[in-house]
Amino acid sequence: ITTGDALRSNKQMDISHLDTEYDTPGAYMDAGELVPDEVVDTIVEEALDSADGFVLDGYPRNHGQAEALEGMTDLDVVLVLDVSREVLVERLGVWRVDPETGENYHVEFDVPDDDAVRERLVQREDDTREAVENRLDVFEAETEPAIQQYHDHEGYVEIDGEQSPDAVWSDIDAAIERKVEGS
Collapsing DSSP states into helix, strand and coil, what is residue 174? Predict the structure, then answer.
C-alpha cells in the first residue's frame, strides 16, 4: 500500500468538508506539502480492509498516523530504509511522468523507447528540488519521531537504503524471512 500512489490517483478528491487549507489532496502535493492525516488515514484504512497481507510504504509519517495505525492493524515487521538527504534529493529528481498516460519514468534507468513519449515527459511538481527539500524538512520534523515510536518493536529493522537495489531487496527479504521463521 503506497500512500504516494494512492494520493496521486486521488489528487482531485474533494476534501472541502474537512475544513483544511486546500480542497483537494493534489493542491497539497503541488505545493510540496503533506496531505492532512484524516485523508491519508482513510485511504490506508480502506486499503487495509481489502488487503490479504500488506506492506505499507510512506505510512505512518507522524505520531498521529502511528496512533491511527495501531487501531487498524498489528505490524509484524517495521523496516526503515536509511538513506541520506543528498541521495534522496538526487533520486527523487530523476523521475518524469508522461502527461498523456500518467506513466512514470526514470531518466537514467527507465527511459521510454518512443521518441515522442520521451519529448513530452515532464517532472512532477512534487518531485522538483524545492518540493523534495520541503518534504524532507517535514520528514525530519514529523516522521523521524514517529519512527522512534517503533524503535523498540520486536520487528524493527534498519536497512541501508544506499546499497544497490538488489542488496536492499536482499536485506528486506532476509528481515521478513527472519520474522516468518520466528513466528
Answer: helix
pLDDT score for 78:
94
The answer to whether the CB of 145 falls within 8 A of the CB of 154 is no
- What pTM value is reported for the model? 0.72
Q: 57 with 3: CB under 8 angstroms?
A: yes
pLDDT of residue 79: 94
Residue 65: strand, helix, or coil: helix
Q: Which residues contact 58 (CB under 8 A, 6 or more apart)?
A: 2, 3, 4
Q: Are 159 and 172 in contact (CB under 8 A)?
A: yes
Task: Give the rounded distance of the alpha carbon of 144 from its chain centre.
Answer: 14
Asked if 161 and 92 touch (Cβ cutoff 8 Å), the reply is no
Round to whole Å and give the CA distance between 67 and 95. 32
